[in-house]
């Protein structure tokens, strides 16, 4: 199957570890020496409608891609510790932290 970068940008990226939607592909990282794709870049989600900027971008290694389908890309991506444990880093997390 052949796929253009513009086709990848229209697909949702789903993490098979938790079923969560990571976003859509923003860019593709290429190795110019071997002419192969090495990673997908997904822009971080907006915080407070973009007033507080964005979360960090997500980089999905090409080896973590399970399936590229018609509408979605399934990836096996390791979650950050705060997402894997279920505790979210919110706006007031620093004020309520009991460490």
Q: In terms of topology, how is this protein built?
A:
Blueprint lengths: L4 H4 L3 E4 L5 E11 L4 E7 L15 E4 L3 E4 L3 E4 L5 H4 L8 H4 L3
Parallel strand pairs: 1-6
Antiparallel strand pairs: 1-2, 2-3, 3-4, 5-6
Model description:
With 99 residues, this protein is mainly beta. The protein has one domain: SH3 type barrels (Roll), CATH 2.30.30.240. 12% of the residues lie in helices and 34% in strands. The protein contains three helices and six strands, in the order αββββββαα. A six-stranded mixed β-sheet has the order 4-3-2-1-6-5, with no helix packed on it. The longest helix has 4 residues. The C terminus is likely disordered.
H/E series: HEEEEEEHH
Indicate the CATH topology. Answer: SH3 type barrels
Got a strand count?
6
Counting helices, strands and paired strands, the structural category is: mainly beta
Query: Overall 3D geometry?
Result: globular
Give me the side-by-side strand order of the main sheet: 4-3-2-1-6-5
What assembly state would you assign to the polypeptide chains in this entry?
single chain
Unreliable sequence segments: 93-97
CATH architecture: Roll
Broad CATH class: Mainly Beta
């Amino acid at each position: 199957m052949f796929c253009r970068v513009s086709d990848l940008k229209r697909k949702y990226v789903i993490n098979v570890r938790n079923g969560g939607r990571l976003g859509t592909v923003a860019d593709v990282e290429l190795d110019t020496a071997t002419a192969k794709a090495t990673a997908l870049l997904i822009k971080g989600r907006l915080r407070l409608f973009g007033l507080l900027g964005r979360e960090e971008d997500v980089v999905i290694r090409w080896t973590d891609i399970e399936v590229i389908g018609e509408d979605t890309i399934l990836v096996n991506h390791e979650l950050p510790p705060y997402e894997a444990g279920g505790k979210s880093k919110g706006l007031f997390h620093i004020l309520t932290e009991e460490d």
